[in-house]
Amino acid sequence: MPVLVFLLLLLFSSTVAADDRLIEVQCHNAEVPAVCIQCVNSDPGALQADRVGIAAIVLSCLTNQSKTLYHDMAELASSSQDKNMEAVAKICQKGYSDAGQQLGAAAQSLQSGDYDMANESVREALENDVACGNEGESNKLSFPPEVVYEMRVYEELADAALRIIDRL
Length: 168
What we know:
It is built from six helices and no strands. The chain has helices at 2-28, 33-41, 51-79, 83-112, 115-138, 145-166.
C-alpha cells in the first residue's frame, strides 16, 4: 500500500511539473514572462490547460485589464477638472470598450481554431491602448501613475497573447 501511494504521488507531481513547464514555455517568449505566468497561474484551470487553453487564459486576463482601464478612464473623465483630460479620458474609455469587444472576438476565433483572426483581433485591441497613449501625449497630458501602470500591464498581456497565439 505505501508503494502505491508513493507511485500516485510521484505521478501527480510529475504531471503538475509538466503543466508548469508548459505554462513557462508558452509565457517564456513574452516580453515580460512574469506577467504572463502570474496571469495564467491565477486561473484555477491552468494546470489542465493545453496551449490553446493557456492562450485563452491570457486573453481572459487581457479582457479583464481592458475593463479595469475602461473604469479607470470613466473615473478620470468624471473627476478631472481639466477639460482636455476629460475629453481624452472619454476617448480612451471608448477605446477600451471597443477593445473589450475585439478581445471577445479574439476569444471566439481562438475557440474555433482561427488563430490568424484571433491574432488580428488582439492587435486591434492593442491599437486602442496605443491610440489612448498617443492622444494623451499629443495633448501634453500625463495620466496618473496607477493608470499608466495598468496600461503597461495591458500592453504586456497583449504582447504575451500575440506571441502565444503566433505559436499555435
